Every structure is written in C-alpha cells, then in structure tokens.
Amino acid sequence: MKGVKIGLEIHEQLDTESKLFCSCPTDYRDAEPNKSICPVCTGQPGSKPFGLNEKALNAVIKIAIALNCKIIVGKPVQVRRKHYIYPDLPSGYQRTSESIGVEGELNNVQIHEVHLEEDPGRFFLREGLVDLNRSGTPLIEITTDPVFDSPPHAREWLEKLASILDYLNVTKKEEGTMRIDANISLNNGNKVEIKNINSFRNVEKALSFEITRQEDLIRRNQTVERETRHFDEKMILTSPSRKKETEEDYRHMPDPDIPPLLIKKELVEKIKKTLPELPQSKAARFVKLYKLSGQNAENIVSDPYAADMFENVSKFVNPILASNWFVGQLKKTLNYNNMTLRGSKITEKQLAALLKMLEKGKITERAAELALREMVLRPADPKKIIENLGLLEFGDLNTIIKEILDKNEKAVNDYKTGRKEAFEYLVGQVMKITKGSADPEEIRRLLKRRL
C-alpha cells in the first residue's frame, strides 16, 4: 500500500521453569491471582534480583542466530531499567537488556535487534484489578525495521516467525504468550503505536482500521497525533491510550544490581550446533527429495509436527499423495474441528494405513475422507472405521455402472427421452450399491459417458 510504513515489536515468553531474576515458577496459569510471586518479581523495597536466568539468555541467543542476527560477543551487554508508571509494574521500571542480536533478516524483512526483558504483570482495565503472577517471566523482544507495506504482509511474516520459534522449541506454546506492538505511519507522518495485540489475525485487523483512520484524518487536513493506541477486538477499532513516549521518557539507566552480560564466542558456537533444520531449508529438501511443489512443501513445513509426520508417512505411501492429503483433506478436516495436527488423535501409523488403502484402490477418496473425519477425533484403526461406516471396497465402478444400466433399461430409455430425474435415479442406484462411498461426481461422469 502506497505510503504505508509498518514496524513490529514481538514479545514472546520464553519456556523456562523459573522467572528471569527469581525462582518463582513461570507455570502460573492455574494459580490464584497474585500467588506465584515473591518480593523480587513484585519489586518490593529492599529486594535484590537473583542471577539472570541462564536458560532464558541461551534461548534468546538461539533465536537470534536462527534470525540471522549478529550476536554481541565479547562486549558487555547492560541490563537496564526502563522507567514508566503503570498498575502492572509495581517497581516503576521494567528490566530489559541491551541488544543481544542485531541486523538480522527473515524473509527479506530486516530485524533491527533482539533482546531479553522481564514481563510485567496483568492489568484488567475494566475491572481495575492487577494480577502479578506473570511479572518477571522471561521475554524475548524482536524488533523489525518499518518495512511492511500492508497488514497482510505483516501477518504473513508473523506466521513465518512463529513457525521458526516453533521449530526452536524455546518459547511458550500456550495461547496469549505472544503479544505484538505495531508501529504505523502514513506518508512519513507521525508514528502511532498499537499496543499488546494478541493474535496475528488481530494484527491485520488493527492495522487495517488504523490505516483507514489515518487516511480519513489526512483527507480532512487534520493531524495524526503521535500516540499509543489500544485495539478493541470486539469493536474492531483502535482507541487512544496515552501519548507516545520517546526513549528519553523512559529514563533508561543500567541496573546497579545486575552485572553486565558477557557473551562468549564459545557459547554462541555451542548453541549454533543445537539448531534444528529450519523451515526454509526443510522445504527446499522436500522439493528436491520428494518432488513436492514449492507451495505444498512450504505449507507442510510451517508446522514441525506435520513435517515430521509427513516424512514418516512417506516411507509407506507415495510422497505426492501424502503431501496432497496433508495440505488438502487433512488440513480442511482439522480446521473444521478447530484443532491442530498435534492436538488431534490421528497418528502417523493410522494415516499411513489409510492412505495405503487409498493408494491400492481398496477405498475411494470420498471413503478415505469420511474415515479421516473420525480418525482426527478419536484413536481408531482406519480399517475398522471403514468397515463400520460400510465403506469397504466395492469393486470396479465401471463394472457396477454397467450392471445398474443393464438392470434398469426403463430408466435408461427415460433418460434418453429427456427425463432428467431418470439420471438421478441411476446415480442413486450406484450410490446404494457402493454404500455411499463412491464419489457422486465420478459416478455422474462415468454414467454420462456410458449413456
């Protein structure tokens, strides 16, 4: 979109057992409000932070490497206090490190920097309540350059980023652990920040609304204020929250209680060796090894669980057949049931058995799809499902159609004299013999050819 500049700040909780500067557990979701806390993570006077969580630091380095960042090696990295006043921040400041990785790149989007910080608590604006259980949980912040030119572009890139984080397995996987701040300006005007957007879909909606709002102000010769706004997902609009702060407003200062971090080259090399095969490399390998289309390969590798299952299923059936089912019927069935492949009941062994029956011509595609609908919901042998649904092999469809036509000479003659209902009667007879497992469109096509 012409004149649109969008930059993103992504905050994602890191998968650690304890918080960034204390031993309180990060698994607080089932805890009562304000129970998973201590004097350190609630910023009580006189409390001192423990040593920085090593697992959290290693996770940030691993993500930065995967995002092609230059790691700050051999130079002290300060942990600073970022001052601002908000109900969910009892200390009045948030601890945040200087850049750990800089000048990264993902899918032609430049990543400005990556750093480590502590999560604040939660403030429930409507109720006026604060829960500090989240306070102190380790976060990674990933900041991009303002290079996105449309809301769909931003959403698509976020999905690529989420896929990489999923492969690295160092971030939380629960819903709501990733939050996005989006900065947007039009025609080099003032920058507006939309804070704490909780899903990729809402990023696209919030940015689309904000573009329309700013365009309307410009059209009426009014000023777009430099401010921070809140996105209301129910109303699908943004509303003013506060004036946009500058870096000077935060009064950054080194935290006197935390020694500077010194990242050694040996640590970076050690972490580099633990990196898995990432989506882009895996997709290229799938295209070369299994002869998949680029689109199918990218679709499958976006989920590491699906990519692993595909490779194992492809040991038993044609990879092209398997890939078409992964991106077609399987994805459609999972979406309909609002579930992920990892969260479904189907196993790679069961899926391979089902596709093997299809590949050998023992069942039709329609029969396989009907069985698949059952298999994602409950663990079961696909052969038994096929039997229970009455979808077992019915023989050659052409042979069945010939027998039906031979037995229904009147209906054939009626069709030839223009009675359309006679054709549907014949389709119904074939469906009856095949117990509904044959593809109706295939039946119609073969019937018309014979008639």
What does this structure look like?
By secondary structure, the protein is an alpha+beta fold. It has three domains: 4-272, no CATH class; 279-388, no CATH class; 397-450, Orthogonal Bundle (Arc Repressor Mutant, subunit A), CATH 1.10.10.410. The protein is built from 15 helices and 14 strands. The strands form three sheets. A nine-stranded mixed β-sheet has the order 2-5-6-9-1-10-11-12-13. The protein has a three-stranded antiparallel β-sheet with strand order 4-3-14, with no helix packed on it. Strands 7-8 form a two-stranded antiparallel ribbon. Strand 10 (178-186) and strand 11 form a beta hairpin. Helix 9 runs antiparallel to helix 10 (365-375), helix 12 crosses helix 14 and helix 14 (420-433) packs across helix 15. It is elongated and about 95 Å long. It starts with a strand and ends with a helix. The model has no long low-confidence stretch (mean pLDDT 91).
Secondary structure layout:
Layout: E1 4-13, H1 54-66, E2 70-71, E3 79-83, E4 93-97, E5 101-106, E6 109-118, E7 122-124, E8 129-131, E9 138-144, H2 151-168, E10 178-186, E11 192-197, H3 200-219, E12 227-232, E13 237-243, E14 253-254, H4 265-272, H5 279-290, H6 294-301, H7 304-313, H8 319-336, H9 348-359, H10 365-375, H11 382-388, H12 397-407, H13 409-416, H14 420-433, H15 440-450
Parallel strand pairs: 11-12
Antiparallel strand pairs: 1-9, 1-10, 2-5, 3-4, 3-14, 5-6, 6-9, 7-8, 10-11, 12-13
Helix pairs in contact: 1-4, 2-3, 5-6, 6-8, 7-8, 7-9, 9-10, 12-14, 12-15, 13-14, 14-15
